[in-house]
What does this fold into?
Amino acid sequence: MGKLHSQAMFFQARAAEKVANPILQRALQKAKPLFVGKRAKGIGALADDRLEFEQLRSACVDIRNRVLSDLDVWLDIFESQAKATGAEVLWAKDGEEICELVIDVARRHGVTKAAKSKSMLSEEAHLNEALAAAGIQPVETDLGEYIVQLAGETPSHIIAPAVHKTLDEIADLFTKTHGRPRQTDIPAMTREAREVLRQHFLSAEMGISGANFLIAETGSAALVTNEGNGRMVTTLPKVHVVITGIEKVVPTLEDFATLMRLLPRSATGQTISNYVSLLTGTRQPGDAEGPEKTVFILVDNGRAKLLGSAYEEMLRCIRCGACMNHCPVYFSLGGHAYGWVYPGPMGSVLTPLFTGLENALDLPHASTGCNQCGSVCPVKIPLPKLMHQLREDQVSGGLRPWSESLALKAWAWVAGKPALYHWVVRRAARYLKWLADDSGRIRVLGLAPGWTVGRDLPAPAGKTFQELYAARKRD
It folds into this structure.
């Protein structure tokens, strides 16, 4: 189901549209320094700064690798412990099965409305559409997710789903859907959303959430949020459904505590998130809150095939969003240009792996190669290396255009003949110098005009490096 909804094959067209959108560009440029600055401050608050940060990163890598090396064992332990607490554990191979299982649970319990906390797996499955088609009203309760649901859009960021929206756009949206006087005061707007959502919390028979981690030793789901909606969704409805990927399991509570030292710092720059919930089992006699029924849906959807492959390291991802927060490509385009659930560097790897490389040919190339993403990843995923591997897979699989292959073969042939190569480079340097205007900028690159559609290029000196170096030595 998720593959049918992917628009990743239209990345180039969507990217050109987003770059030319001045409202989006203002929203993105306002958000980037906040993400980067807060993370730097959060990491800097660690006792020994970089030293402790690197030690924590290594510890978290070890935890995630230990899980992946015996994933089936840890999943079996989690299932056994979760069932012992009264929870039901179900397994889904793809998005279609997620929808079928959730709708079946809903019908068994007479559910007409489902209040949702953030769940990227439900986005992979397009669960909201399936619920609505089954006569069940889905209501997103994370403020950012709520905003994009009202707008009929999808999240553009995994941590800040409405980062692409301006204050005025949200004010207009609230006025249209809530039927209240227009407000632009942020506290007043959040209060308005809270008042509207409160009625849904009280009337929803089912709560749906994701899980940041699954704790094998206790059979618990760990939910990390900055809004109280997560606890409302998981404690008020009579049924709570947790939808999460099979790779999210960690062995112990101690391991979870270690990962939590980096997750909020990498995501929002916080030492600890406002709400950290450990959800275990169902309401017992004497409990003041909690669901009468808890269901875990553990999802594959392409994850199992990555085990033991060249891309296994991608399963370490803890969905903090740090890679996209520091990516110059992401903050030039926003998340919607990537065409599927996961944007930025993580999406440039995950989308081809989950939806098929042939359906996302441009995404592994959506990178400057600067490695900002790899350097800030809390679990040291070598994202540029994985994107490069995907490019190699495209070439070996015959998925690149014939013109590109021909051009590379021609370049390789010329580069193998030094005299010819130097002659061609000298002519190219002079040609590029000739293309420049009086300011020394190339406005239209004749042989490849696409390079200058959205930017000007500085012209070279008109001579090659070797020519300039030889002249300097003579002087």
Observations:
- The mean pLDDT is 93.
